[in-house]
Amino acid sequence: MQCKAIKTAIYFLVLSVLLNSTNSWAQEWKLEKQKNNVSIYSKQTDSGYKEVLVKTIVEANPHALIALLDDAAFSSQWIHNCIEVKILEEISPTERLVHGFFAAPWPVKDRDMVTFSSTTSTDNSVQIVISDKGDTKPQHPKYVRMQNMHGLWEANALENGKSEITYTGGGNPGGNLPTFIANSELISTMFKTFQNLNKVILLDQYQPIKITE
């Protein structure tokens, strides 16, 4: 009888932790939009600029995300408002310094950012950490340098050859852009980017090579 009571107490304790964790997550992240297999959430930061969490499920191996992001020349075809992405330095097979240029609606000046990306992976998962390196390259006179940029790409294998892809990140758009405009643009840009990602990640050139015996 005592053993049963202990098991019951443990069950309710675990259930309570799970429920509190779920409620905490719900309070922290606010659903902004959900459509066509893409969900985007946001949360406010102390700076006033929002961070976003974007999710989607694709019929592709997690490693397809690495192949897609490695194709810098194709970036402008799917990353919304992207003008160009340049690889400044291949530090190692899993580390690189990247310079991205982005269009902004008139009369806002176009933006650029310099970031460092580090990739780790297993057979069933991928993580790509993005950190700001804007101080490593002089600012371009035609662009406003974005600051404190950070992000995390993740791809995790699901059943039936599918993967869940998520991106979490944010930063400071630089200049004198009002926060409400910057936040709205961030949410719109990342949602459209993931809509595009859903399509292009399925292209043959981004599928991992299958090795057969």
Nutshell version of this structure?
The chain is an alpha+beta fold and 213 residues long. The chain has helices at residues 2-28, 63-70, 179-200, and strands at residues 30-35, 38-44, 50-58, 82-92, 95-102, 111-121, 125-132, 144-145, 147-157, 163-172.
Give an account of the 3D structure.
The protein is of the alpha+beta class and 213 residues long. Helices cover 27% and strands 39% of the residues. It contains three helices and ten strands, in the order αβββαβββββββα. It has helices at residues 2-28, 63-70, 179-200; strands spanning 30-35, 38-44, 50-58, 82-92, 95-102, 111-121, 125-132, 144-145, 147-157, 163-172. Strands 1, 2, 3, 4, 5, 6, 7, 8, 9 and 10 form a ten-stranded mixed beta sheet that branches. The longest helix is centred in the N-terminal third of the chain and has 27 residues, at 2-28.
Run of helices and strands: HEEEHEEEEEEEH
Task: Summarize the biggest pleated sheet.
Answer: 10 strands, mixed
Question: What percent strand?
Answer: 35-45%
- The name CATH uses for the topology is Alpha-D-Glucose-1,6-Bisphosphate, Chain A, domain 4
Number of domains: 1
Instruction: Please bin the fraction of helical residues.
Output: 25-40%
Q: What class do helices, strands and sheet pairing give?
A: alpha+beta
Report the uncertain regions: 5-25
Terminal Cα span: 57 Å
Task: Tell me which CATH architecture applies here.
Answer: 2-Layer Sandwich
CATH superfamily caption: START domain
Task: Please report the first level of CATH classification, the CATH class.
Answer: Alpha Beta
For the CA atoms, what is the radius of gyration?
A: 20 Å
Determine the mean pLDDT: 89
The dominant shape is: globular
The helix count comes to: 3
Compute the number of strand runs.
Answer: 10
Protein name: START domain-containing protein
Organism: Paraglaciecola arctica BSs20135
Domain START: 29-199
GO cellular component, one term: cytoplasm
